[in-house]
Write a structure and sequence with these properties.
Length: 275
């Protein structure tokens, strides 16, 4: 993906074509040798993959991580249906009406995603979550159960992220490794693996915070406060976690990006030229 600019040749090379060609061959051979050393570092990758050093160690900004974790539309899907539910319930005090309103809003958001030709997972994922939450609330007749699925998911995520750290496969590395082009080569780099572990702890803290705040409100049947907490603990701490993740990874060693044999036309061309 990176483009290499050709260095200008000195005047002495321009005056002597033969010496210029020899210098160019020397530069090509040296470049090829450096590439081969970098590629040899990924001998543990599968499927004919090779590793080459990345230009930098992190996404270019925290906003690029926001996109990786769902983007602006993900934030909207995360916030709006729950906000609509709590507002309608506060006004009507009716579980079914509030649930149907939330589902209707989620359906509109899903329809917008479909019209934009986004993937079905992104388009329908949020809608299905809201639909299940609404179904549980209506069937139980308890408005607070609209938020039960979210509370359970937070608990499940907290456990999963913690276990991933204990088994030395921190989930932030599992998620971001392929996005950054390094796949799982970070596991061979102790400092980078440690950074992913630290970043994963940040997300564990986020999920635990949600549980600590929401569970007492759920048990006390404080629907309005529970809905407000759901909104407050949605996007704001999510953005903080993303920023801290970016900050941690920006101080980590650079990744070793993975390329595949079929995707190395430039390396092949360099090798041919050196011969």
């Amino acid at each position: 993906m990176t483009a290499e600019a050709e260095l200008p040749r000195p005047a002495s090379e321009a005056a002597s074509p033969g010496s210029g060609d020899r210098a160019a061959d020397g530069r090509t051979a040296a470049g090829t040798g450096a590439e081969e050393k970098a590629l040899d570092r990924a001998d543990d990758t599968a499927g004919g993959a090779h590793a080459a050093p990345a230009a930098d160690g992190t996404p270019d900004s925290a906003m690029s991580l926001v996109a990786a974790f769902g983007g602006v539309r993900g934030m909207i899907d995360m916030t709006v249906p729950g906000l609509v539910f709590v507002v309608v319930f506060t006004i009507t005090r009716t579980t079914a009406t509030s649930a149907y309103a939330a589902v209707a809003v989620a359906a509109v958001l899903a329809g917008i995603r479909l019209m934009r030709r986004e993937t079905l997972m992104h388009a329908l994922g949020g809608f299905l979550g809201v639909a299940i939450a609404a179904f549980v609330a209506i069937k139980s007749g308890k408005a607070e159960n609209f938020y039960l699925l979210g509370v359970l998911l937070s608990g499940g995520y907290a456990v999963a992220y913690t276990v991933s750290i204990l088994v030395r496969w921190p989930l932030i590395g599992v998620v971001l490794g392929p996005i950054l082009g390094e796949n799982f080569t970070w596991r061979k780099n102790p400092a980078r693996a440690a950074a992913y572990t630290k970043a994963t702890w940040v997300w564990v803290a986020l999920f635990v915070l949600r549980i600590v705040v929401q569970v007492p409100l759920y048990l006390a049947d404080k629907v309005t406060w529970l809905g407000a907490a759901k909104v407050a603990l949605g996007v704001p701490p999510w953005l903080v976690a993303i920023y801290l993740t970016w900050l941690i990874m920006s101080k980590a060693p650079p990744p070793v990006k993975v390329t595949y044999d079929d995707d190395r036309p430039s390396a092949t061309g360099s090798e041919s030229t050196s011969r």
